[in-house]
Amino acid sequence: MSARLDRRVTFERQGAGRNALNEPTGDWVGIATLWAARTDLSETERAAAGQIGAVRATRFTLRRTALAEGLTRTLGPADRLRAEGLIWNITGVTERGPWIDVSAVSNGRKEEA
Q1: Which superkingdom, per the lineage (predicted)?
Q2: Does residue 111 form part of some domain?
Q3: pLDDT averaged over consecutive 10-residue blocks of the chain (113 residues)?
């Protein structure tokens, strides 16, 4: 089975910079833009602290290339990706034959101000 790589995804990492509370303050910097296939896994609503929010889990599939392999070896939960105007938090990376699967979740937020 061949994945249809029809989406552009940009992987981002937060730049250096910390405030007085040692929280990251640097801007998000794009580290690679690649073609990917998207498979939606689930959508759920969570009620927490009196608020209801939607969470979407998705898997982005990349073709295994030297660039993709090098990138995914360094990806972690502090990184994110941007696809179709949404910000996705990376939850896991799995190699599967000629493919690399990047699991991510989004709460539907768009570009940050």
Answers
A1: Bacteria
A2: no
A3: 82 82 80 92 58 76 88 85 91 90 83 51
